[in-house]
Amino acid sequence: MNLANSTLGLIDLLTQSEEVCKCFTTAPLSQRSASAVIGFIGALCGPKASELKVKDMEKYNFNPRQLLLQIVRVILRIGREEALDKDGFIVSMSTDTDYSPKYMEKAYSVLVRDSVIDPTEMQQFQKMLEEMNVLHEAAVEEAPAVTPGSHLPSWVEQVEAVQLDAVVLAEKYVLALGDMRFDAAELQDYHSFQQNASEALDPRSPKVKALMKEIKQLQSNLPVHPGAAVFVRQ
Fold first, then answer.
1. Smaller CB count within 10 Å for the chain: N or C?
2. How far apart are CA 15 and CA 163, in angstroms?
């Protein structure tokens, strides 16, 4: 908790600068930070929030209301610096698959109920929630309906339809990176990412959603290849 409070306190301090806030309004940082914030809100206001209990909260410097207030203030500061860009922080939060209007409304009600947020911030947060819920509803309506037993997304079928000689591919891959290799390691006979994808057959499962989300983010920043596994030493 000391480390968490220090880290969040630093983010809280940094986002008081308009120049720093602007860094969170463009991809890829906007998408990654939006996902992180949604995770924080879910932990503090979701169904597992009741598990975050200790006998002596002061002993562990655990103040969930203060944590929630700091997170909301960070959201408000970043939100002021963007104009709802499609790759921006607010849109990324609203269209994230894990975004929950219910959790966000609970965050708002807790802060108002306990009078830990000033009236100006309260109005700003309420207005932002209304905008985010509209964006979220639009994203849900545009998303293709997925029913149990239906096919996986089209990109999966396209990848499966490509005929590759795995042996030749592996040889070319090793040859291409041969000069860059600094060490070798004994690995198990499967790739964890590939196994996760093959085990999660239900398109609605959290695992598939997580993989899809990660693929989407990587595609805008890195080349993604199903046969590639790269180790980097810094």
1. C
2. 49
- Mapped onto helix, strand or coil, the DSSP state of residue 153 is coil
Per-residue pLDDT 10s for the chain (234 aa) are 888 888 888 888 888 888 888 888 888 888 888 888 898 899 889 888 888 778 888 888 888 888 899 999 999 988 887 766 677 888 889 988 889 999 999 999 999 888 888 888 888 999 999 999 998 888 888 766 555 545 555 666 666 666 677 777 777 877 877 777 777 666 555 556 566 656 556 777 777 777 777 777 766 665 545 445 555 554
Measured between alpha carbons, how far is 152 from 31 in angstroms, rounded to an integer? 24
Across 18-65, the runs of DSSP E, i.e. the strands, are none
Instruction: Sketch the domain layout of the chain as residue ranges.
Output: 1-142, 163-233
